[in-house]
Write a structure and sequence with these properties.
Length: 288
Amino acid sequence: MSGKSIFDKLWERHVVTGNEGEPQLMYVDQHYIHEVTSPQAFQGLRDAGRKVRRPDLTFGTTDHNVPTVDIFNIRDLISKNQIDTLAKNVEEFGIDAATHGTARQGIVHMVGPETGRSQPGKFVVCGDSHTATHGAFGAIAFGIGTSEVEHVFATQCLWQVKPKKMKVEFVGKPQPGVYSKDFILALIARYGVDAGVGYAVEYCGEAIDALSMDERMTICNMSIEFGSKMGIMNPDETTFDYLRGRECVPDDFEAAVADWKTLVSDDDAVYDKVIRLDVYDLAPMVTW
């Protein structure tokens, strides 16, 4: 029997019911929310007389509508309304949130890692396509629509069809001036913006192992631009060192690490497609 990829192992851990190849009900470990894709979902709960199933597994922040400079000077009334509405909703439904102007508030894909909520082995969703960012920690993470946000609010579960698996192996050592964003941009330039459609993409190889967590998150974040809604990496000591001591990590951290180490892809794991790219050959990429 062939080995399993990290994606296979995580997927199997989270199936509530259903058969592979058909829609399966998946359990969600972490739900991130922000001010743009949550208002209608909250209103849907009110209209149906429902509560948030697991407010403790939900975490919110304002980010999309926040000005870069002078963050309280919001001239767009719709943006201001969305920010104010999130503050009211998280209070009403008992959800912890890094609300506007607080020290924890920031980009929705970063407040999770910074607080230690994004961890290996988790199934993470958010109403934002770049939720793939959290895959850098060894998690299944992807963006969902507003109706799905409401479904997760109400049930802490989500119907999904398991995608195919692609392995992208980055080998070699980059030359000076070439960084992780160049890795993913080169991949997209070479294979196209739709090459990842229908796949969960696992990024691996010696060039990935050498990256910091911030650099790894950059690559997983841009899985969307490659056409895949989720990217994932195997957790390692770099991952564990980043998480150690953060606010929301498990109390018995070393026991958690021991479990996380079992999640990595087996050497004989099978993939539907494999791509190999030597980063030594890359030059800095310029985008605008």
